């Protein structure tokens, strides 16, 4: 039996309304030779309480402080609090863990590779995994996202559905607590590639709602989200040569492109994020 901690961070979402937790509750894990522990980090101010997780099968661990903790800090706390665990699965609150996902883990565990990621779909488009070239990320063509072992060099992905061996944290790779939310995943994969040369792509596709790509939300909220993303880039890419200068011009380009694509000049406000380049 593989011991796996499934980590789900909630914010303003009741556990019984989390698509992730509902999907996790619907399996008989012994059929997949998995011994699960469900860790829920409740970032709501009032807290829903451990009793709100009574519908989950197996062992449950509940965290709540009344504060909206950094995603990076929450992940690190869970890892540091755990012992005798083989694997961690990090999940958003709206991901669906189906039978195919659990089945796909068997081949991954046999590969000897310490990290695996699923393919993630948003509005019919694969948005993860991807690649990073210097300070710029790019989507990979679907035909190149073959299942199995591949190089970790310049490889990045979204965190939801990512499986991580405890050995990775034992080697000193953790989540960068300078980051609040945006970029936590990208920085993790960049750091991981400095220690490990291989990564594994699972034979499964998960759907995900990408807030950065959601044009239905109010423009003010879209701008705030993109500014926060751009403000995280100096931390994510601080290992790139001349990253401050490169990001200065890239953020200007990024904000201009957003304003043209979204047909709203207010997205030029994202360029104000260049000030973060001079705060460190």
From TrEMBL:
Keywords per UniProt: Transferase
A GO term, aspect molecular function: transferase activity
Domain of life: Bacteria
InterPro entries (UniProt xref): Glyco_trans_2-like (IPR001173), Nucleotide-diphossugar_trans (IPR029044)
TM spans (from-to): none
Glycosyltransferase 2-like domain mapped to chain residues: 31-121
Protein's UniProt name: Glycosyltransferase
